[in-house]
Automatic annotation (TrEMBL):
CDD domains in alphabetical order: fer2
Compositionally biased residues, Acidic residues: 207-216
GO terms for MF: 2 iron, 2 sulfur cluster binding; metal ion binding; oxidoreductase activity
One Pfam entry name: Fer2_2
Alphabetic keyword roster: 2Fe-2S, Iron, Iron-sulfur, Metal-binding, Oxidoreductase
Region of interest called Disordered, as start-end residue ranges on this chain: 193-216
Entries under SUPFAM superfamilies matching the protein: 2Fe-2S ferredoxin-like, CO dehydrogenase ISP C-domain like
Species the sequence originates in: Haloplanus rubicundus
Protein known as: (2Fe-2S)-binding protein
Domain (2Fe-2S ferredoxin-type): residue spans on this chain: 5-81
InterPro entries, per the entry: 2Fe-2S-bd, 2Fe-2S-bd_dom_sf, 2Fe-2S_ferredoxin-like_sf, 2Fe-2S_ferredoxin-type, 2Fe2S_fd_BS, Beta-grasp_dom_sf, Diverse_Oxidoreductases
Length: 216
């Protein structure tokens, strides 16, 4: 008879109650029971860091933790990054950094690198290069070397510093970006397409609307 325990994990903000054997590793629970396969398994022995997730805000190697040990905790995986306010509905600056700075090749180590980077920037928004290297020292990459990974995390730090409106969990609205005399009100259905267009210009091909008009 299989001995199973009921545990509750809040993963990326959603609470899940699952039954697991006491010997089940957290990484297997995340991947198999919750179907969140962004968290990778590279070694299963705590060496590679591919399985790094945040547990109550701290980076852990989920292959070194039994799922039952995480009962009641908040887990964040790479899938949760796009839901953070600073992602503004798109990629999180860390994800963007890995794309812009060529911080990945095969991508196998990337989720773990991103979660280690997230833990670092949460604690230290303006890290020195050496601090970044230390933060990712438990994460191995077989493809890129580490230079571009460091640059990717630096990119994210710069982006996050440049987005003060996200510090309070908010974001810069389109209306704020285009502040002025315009009554531009994006974010609603049937958006007019920009502050310069009060409506379609009569007789003009819509694709050549004067987006550089006097209102901009
Ligand atoms: S799979 Fe966990 S450290 Fe490699
Ligand atoms: S990008 Fe391939 S292992 Fe890091």
């Amino acid at each position: 008879m299989t001995d199973e325990r009921e545990i509750t994990l809040t993963v990326n903000g959603t609470e899940h109650t699952i039954e697991v054997e006491p010997r089940k590793l957290l990484v297997h629970a995340i991947r198999e029971d919750l179907d969140l396969t962004g968290t990778h398994i590279g070694c299963d022995t705590g060496n590679c860091g591919a399985c790094t997730v945040l547990k109550d805000g701290e980076p852990i190697k989920s292959c070194l933790t039994f799922a039952v040990q995480a009962d009641g905790s908040e887990i964040m995986t790479v899938e949760g990054m796009e839901d953070l306010p600073e992602a503004e509905g798109e990629l999180h600056p860390l994800q963007e950094g890995f794309r812009e700075e060529h911080g990945l090749q095969c991508g196998y180590c990337t989720p773990g690198m991103i979660m280690s980077g997230k833990a670092l920037l949460d604690e230290n928004p303006d890290p020195e290069e050496g601090e970044i290297r230390e933060a990712i020292s438990g994460n191995l990459c077989r493809c890129t070397g580490y230079q571009n990974i460091v640059k990717s995390i630096e990119y994210a730090a710069d982006e996050l510093k440049a987005e003060p409106a996200t510090a309070d969990g908010g974001s810069v609205t389109a209306a704020e970006r285009f502040d002025g005399e315009t009554d531009f009100d994006c974010g609603v259905e049937d958006c007019c397409g920009g502050p310069s267009a009060d409506g379609p210009i009569e007789g003009a091909d819509p694709q050549f609307d004067d987006v550089g008009g006097e209102d901009t």
